[in-house]
Amino acid sequence: MAFKKAVKAGEKKKYGNTPLLDAGTYDARVLSIVDLGLQPGSPQYPEPKLKLEFRFELLDEFMVSEDGSVDEKAPRVFSFEVTYNEDGYMDEKANIYKLISAIPDGFTLDLNEMIGAPVTVMIQKYKKQSGKNAGKEDNKITSVLPMKAKNISVAGPLVNTPFFFDLGEPDLAVWKKLFKGNQYAHQDRIMASPSFQGSKLQKLLGIEAPEHEEEATESDGFEDVDVDADVPDMSDDTQEHLPVDAEEELY
């Protein structure tokens, strides 16, 4: 069948009002993993934590085009953030432990080898608490579970281009694929992180570290200022901070 409308190179395809998913479980694959470095904690647990963002591409749920038709070339995508320890230790109650437990042979794999892995995600409805969409109902992933063996055998491949970004060993080609331009975007959050200062990524990007004022020889009576105090609080590990599913294209 011929296409209905020509789309110029660089134009984003527009989608209509894609309905929310009912609460329940949905089969998916790991689409991407992004190391966000050290990120602010929550009001309840204010200590900054190292975070990874996983994105999952649903196998059987798709975006709805402006004309109301289902676009099976545009699977719905949701993000899920977890905290991690630099030494790899995971408590059995931690979200990252449960996530990796859900991936087939997860504990034998390096992070980059988890891309494409089949899992099942639990999706719930919730109301956004802040921002321009405060009060609006949306979907989010609340947990990641193993996919049933019978479903794995028939699970289709990823549609979107997968990628893995490691802040410790950054790939600039992958860096350019990450979202940027607002305080919740990948690049902006990583560059606002204390992990960025002095990192290999900072050097690859050619960004010089900010110059510090000459240290005083005597105490001036004031405590050091927290230079990262204005970093936005991303308090919910499971929050879909970037509205990939409804409002943004992946690449």
Which structural traits does this protein have?
single chain; 251 residues; alpha+beta; six-stranded mixed β-sheet; 12% helix; globular
Give an overview in words.
The protein is an alpha+beta fold and 251 residues long. The chain is built from 5 helices and 6 strands; from the N terminus they run E-E-E-H-E-E-H-E-H-H-H. Strands 1, 2, 3, 4, 5 and 6 form a 6-stranded mixed sheet that branches. It starts with 23 loop residues before the first strand and ends in a 46-residue tail after the last helix. The N terminus and C terminus are likely disordered.
Overall morphology: globular
Helix percent reads: 10-25%
Largest sheet: 6 strands, mixed
What's the alpha carbon Rg, rounded to whole Å?
20 Å
| Average pLDDT figure | 81
Q: Report the total helices.
A: 5
Percentage beta strand: 25-35%
Low-confidence stretches: 3-9, 212-251
- The count of β-strands is 6
The helix-strand sequence is EEEHEEHEHHH
**Terminus-to-terminus distance:** 26 Å
Structural class: alpha+beta
